[in-house]
């Protein structure tokens, strides 16, 4: 399917998000918290986290694709993840700016730091390296925003969910999984990308856990050779039906033969947020079904 400009921009945004995986939800500096700061978010997943932390009413500006929760769509847009409007930010007089080290342009971050010295706002840089970094960052945002009670409660809930799933599937026999991000070229993710970490949590094994990059192009022949038991279709919903039909041309692949090609709601799995952790339980259930059916077939 040909790419439109709009779809290409969305795809690039998604790929950049998949690269956000070096560092440990850490800030470059440790700003002192203030009561009810005016907040600007420079990444869609950070926007979601501000709401999870109970500080949504303090957001005054966001970047493109900050579309969840619905309230976020009403906020002023100050640019995109890789091209922010610095003049607009200055006009809005924020107290706190949340940045994304892998996604925001280096020159924008450097310019913000220069303005920080003159205007006195705070900058908090973050990355996601582990699944536990998600609740940790929500808690940290709550501390910065003065909404610690709400944020800490949410963080504890999410940590508990991760702990329960990790315990439940810790001894499960691995199910091999291929996660498709794009079709032409065929793109997937490597071992340390957050979706792959979620698959591992469920007792799955990414068939491209040897991929050096966090995302990368792979060949159809290699996917067929590695013969995944489950194929998960990411990407936009508009493309998933075509991708699903394309896989039906390869009935010898275990996932196709056993009816284990699944279309995912990419809105839930494309960002490392509260919604992603909530979506892990149904993902684990899909892999458990594949595991159960495989066990039944070996005993018949």
What's the topology here?
Layout: H1 5-18, E1 39-41, H2 44-52, E2 59-61, E3 79-80, E4 83-84, H3 86-92, E5 96-100, H4 106-119, E6 122-126, H5 133-145, H6 148-169, E7 175-180, E8 187-189, H7 194-201, E9 204-206, E10 215-217, H8 220-226, E11 230-233, H9 237-247, H10 254-257, E12 261-263, H11 266-269, H12 274-299
Parallel strand pairs: 1-2, 1-5, 5-6, 7-9, 7-11, 11-12
Antiparallel strand pairs: 3-4, 8-10
Key features?
alpha/beta, Rossmann fold, 12 strands, 4-stranded parallel sheet, disordered C terminus, 300 residues, single chain
Structure overview:
Helix 5 (133-145) runs antiparallel to helix 6 and helix 6 packs parallel to helix 12. With 300 residues, this protein is of the alpha/beta class. The chain has helices at residues 5-18, 44-52, 86-92, 106-119, 133-145, 148-169, 194-201, 220-226, 237-247, 254-257, 266-269, 274-299, and strands spanning 39-41, 59-61, 79-80, 83-84, 96-100, 122-126, 175-180, 187-189, 204-206, 215-217, 230-233, 261-263. It has 2 domains: 13-166, Rossmann fold (3-Layer(aba) Sandwich); 172-299, Nitrogenase molybdenum iron protein domain (Rossmann fold). The strands form 4 sheets. Strands 2-1-5-6 form a 4-stranded parallel β-sheet, sandwiched between helices. A hairpin with a 2-residue loop joins strand 3 and strand 4 (83-84). Helix content is 46%, strand content 14%.
